[in-house]
Amino acid sequence: MRKSDEVYWTISLPKDHEALQALDAYCKEWGGLSRAEATRRLLMEWCKIQRGQSISPWIPNGPSQPSEVAAPERALRTPGTVNKPVIASQAARAASQVLDD
């Protein structure tokens, strides 16, 4: 259900674009996030980092306890073709709630 106090839009990328492949890899790495949720998380993390705020990232496929760091450390990802995830895991949904704080 859409909320009246939020803004919604759509985005697109060419099917063979490396950014789309990287986004799909990110979705898979974080437990099956949707492309929309992954994009939302990346934007919110970037915004907090730009303002010098700490973020509490959850380690993908790791323990379910967040660790406070100044900036997320991301491993280099090899682009690959991954099907769009449909259902996010419980850990992925919980990790996304951390960014809303």
Features:
0% strand; mainly alpha; 101 residues; globular
Summarize the structure.
With 101 residues, the chain is mainly α. The chain has helices spanning 18-29, 35-50, 90-99. The chain has a domain at 16-53 and 80-101.
Share in helix: 25-40%
Q: Helix count?
A: 3
| Poorly predicted runs of 5 or more residues | 63-87
How do the SSEs run, as a string of H and E? Answer: HHH
What's the Cα radius of gyration?
Answer: 14 Å
Class computed from helices, strands and strand pairing: mainly alpha
| Shape summary | globular
Our measurement of the CA-to-CA distance between the termini, rounded to an integer number of angstroms, reads: 20 Å
Quaternary status: single chain
Largest sheet: none
What is the residue-averaged pLDDT?
Answer: 73
Q: Could you tell me the number of beta strands?
A: 0
Strand residue content: under 5%
What would you say this structure looks like, in words?
With 101 residues, this protein is mainly α. It has a domain at 16-53 and 80-101. The chain has helices at residues 18-29, 35-50, 90-99. The radius of gyration is 14 Å and the shape is globular. The model is unreliable at 63-87 (pLDDT under 50).
List the topology elements.
Elements: H1 18-29, H2 35-50, H3 90-99
